[in-house]
Amino acid sequence: MNSISSQNNYFNTIYAAPHMAPAAKPETAAPLQPSTPELSDGFHSSQGYDAGIVMPKVSLVSARQGAVPPVVVKDDGLSHARDASGLSLTQAASFLPSVAAVALSSAASQTPDAKYNEAVKSEPAITSMMQSLAEDQGFELVGLEHRLKSWESFSRKIAANPEGYEVKDIIRYTVVESPDKLTQTTLKTMEDLEKAGYKTIVVKNTWDNEANPYKGINTFVESPEGQKFELQYHTRDSFDLKDGEMHKLYEQWRLIPDPESPEAIALNDRMLQLADSLPRPENISSVENRK
Fold first, then answer.
1. What is d(CA 187, CA 91) in angstroms, rounded to the nearest whole number?
2. How far apart are the C-alpha atoms of 14 and 119, rounded to whole Å?
3. Buried b (16+ CB within 10 A) or exposed e, 72-85
4. Which residue from 75, 229, 269, 286 has the least number of CB within 10 angstroms?
5. Would the pTM of this model clear 0.90, i.e. be above it?
6. For residue 65, what are the contacts with CB-CB under 8 A and spacing of at least 6?
7. Dihedral Cα 158, 240, 286, 224, nearest 10 deg
C-alpha cells in the first residue's frame, strides 16, 4: 500500500520533536528564564507523521512557576570548526590577510554550531511574543520547558543530513485550544504574528488528510530577524493522543521492516481508528496549507 509507505517520512518528521505533557497556562506574559534544551529527542512540535519520534517521559513544570533551567551556549559557536593546527576558524583568521579573514568569518557564521547558538540567542524574544499572544487570546501554550531542541538532538539531524543542515524546529511551541476555537485561534495567531513582523511561511493542516493518522496543524514561522521556528496548533484531545497511545503504536510500527506486512497494516489501521475518534475542530478546513 503506497499510502502506508508514504507515511514513513511524515512519521519520522513529526515524532522527532520533544515529548511534552500539558503545562498550566501562564497567568502573565512575564519572560521565562532561558531554557535548557532537553537531552534527547522527544515528541513536541512537528508531530504529525512527517516528523520522527523519540519521546522520553518527563515531568513538566508550568511557566508561571519559573522552574526553567538556563541554556548553556557555546563560547564562540565554533567548537567543531578547527583547522589542522587545532585552531578554531576565528583564531586561524587572525593569521590571514584581511580578505581571507572575512571569508573565514562568513563561513564560520554558517556552521551548525553558529546556527544553533543564533537560535538560542533569539529564543527569549520569540518566547516573550508567544506568551503575550497566549495571554491576549487566552489559549494554552504547552511544553515551554522544551521550547529548545537539545544540541544532541540537533547534532543527530546534522549528521543525518550534513549537506543541508538547516533545522527549523530548534525553537518550537505548541498551542492547545478547544475544538470550537482552534480554527479561530490559529488564524488569529497567524494574523497577530504577521502584524508583529513574524511571517508564517509553511502551514500543514492534516485534519482533512484521511490517510494520515496524525491530526494537527504544523507551521513554521520566521521572525523579523530571520530566525525560523516551529509552531503547532492542537486540540487537547489531538495533543493527548499524539503524546499517548498514538506514540506507543507508532513506536511498534516504525520497528517493522516491511510497512506493508500484516502487522504493520494492522497497527496503521488502529492509528487511523484513533484519529477518526477525535472530535473535529469547527471550520478546520479554513486553515489552508501553505508551502
1. 48
2. 20
3. ebeeebbeebeeee
4. 75
5. no
6. none
7. -40
Cell of 113: 554550531
How far, in Å, CA of 283 to CA of 52, rounded?
28
Rounded to whole angstroms, the Cα distance separating 7 from 52 reads: 11
Q: How far is CA 287 from CA 2, 82, 86, 176, 268, in A?
A: 27, 46, 52, 15, 26
**Residue with cell string 557555546:** 74
Q: What are 237's three cell numbers?
A: 484531545
C-alpha 190/C-alpha 233 separation (Å) is: 11
How far is the C-alpha of 212 from the C-alpha of 68, rounded, in Å? 34
Q: What is the DSSP string of 119-163?
A: HHHHHHHHHHHHHHHHHHH--EEE-GGG-B--HHHHHHHHHH-TT
**What SS3 state is found at 276?**
helix
Joined together, the cell numbers standing for residue 271 give 492509528
**pLDDT bucket at 180, cuts 50 / 70 / 90:** very high
* Backbone phi and psi for residue 80, each to the nearest 5 degrees, phi listed first: -100, 0
How many angstroms separate the CA atoms of 269 and 276, rounded?
10
What are the tens digits of pLDDT across the range 55-85?
333 223 333 333 343 443 333 333 333 333 3
